[in-house]
Structures are given as structure tokens and as C-alpha cells.
Design brief:
This protein has a single domain, classed as STM4215-like (2-Layer Sandwich). Helices cover 22% and strands 37% of the residues. Strands 2, 3, 4, 5, 6, 7 and 8 form a seven-stranded mixed beta sheet that branches. It has a two-stranded antiparallel sheet with strand order 1-9. Strand 4 and strand 5 form a beta hairpin. Helix 1 crosses helix 2. The longest helix has 16 residues. It starts with a strand and ends in a 6-residue tail after the last strand.
Amino acid sequence: MKPLRTYPRVVRLVVTLLATLLDDLDEAATVAANVPRHWTPTAGTHVQVASDGVPELDHPVAIYPTVRVTVWAADPDEADRVAGICLGLLAGHPGEGGIGATRPLTGPLPARDADTGADLSSVTVRVTVRSVPLIPAAP
């Protein structure tokens, strides 16, 4: 029987990482797994992190989810600029804090949100997430 292992939530790891690194760069963007409920382009730039699934795994060692980072902004240049920064930060990540490695996949890919009028720019990366022991609940 293989050891009982589980995997940290990749979205949470990437949200924490990007929020910290963008703050270190004095970027004013907010970072979360969702877009704030009443967000509008005048609220400032927002970075949304989502999982596009796990197309590859090597259980019990690691999983390799695809993570999509979408920047919501008031103009296309700002959306692309921040998306490029996020791609660079993730591609250059040294492998720590639960993330073993990263590999750029796509982007920046521009778009527009019809509901809010926001300009969007998305990038994707493959993230290596190492497993952690699964501790069964006490009886």
C-alpha cells in the first residue's frame, strides 16, 4: 500500500506567494482566488488565481496542476503589464513554501469582461506541489 499523502491547495499557495511578491515590488494590485463581489475597474488592479486542473501527477510524491492567473484592470496595458510581472515572478520562483517548481505555459493572453468593462490578461503556469502526510482524524 502506498503511503497516505495529500496535497496542499495550490491556489492558496500561489495567492500567498503572489500577494507577498507583488507587495515587495510595491505593486498596488490585490490578489485572491476570486474577484471581489462588487469589483469595478475603478477599484484598482486585481489578480485572480484559479486552478485549471491537474493533468499530471506522480503520487505519492507530487502533483503538477495548471494555474491560471488573470489580471483585472482599467486598461489593457496595465492588465498585460501586471500579468507579465506575475508570469515572471512565478517562472523565477526558486521552489519553496510548498511549491517545488514552476514552468511557464501560456500568456499573456488579453481579453475583456463584458459585465464590468475590465481589461483582462491571463497567464498559465504548471506548478509542482509536493505531497504532505495525511494525518487521519482521531477516533
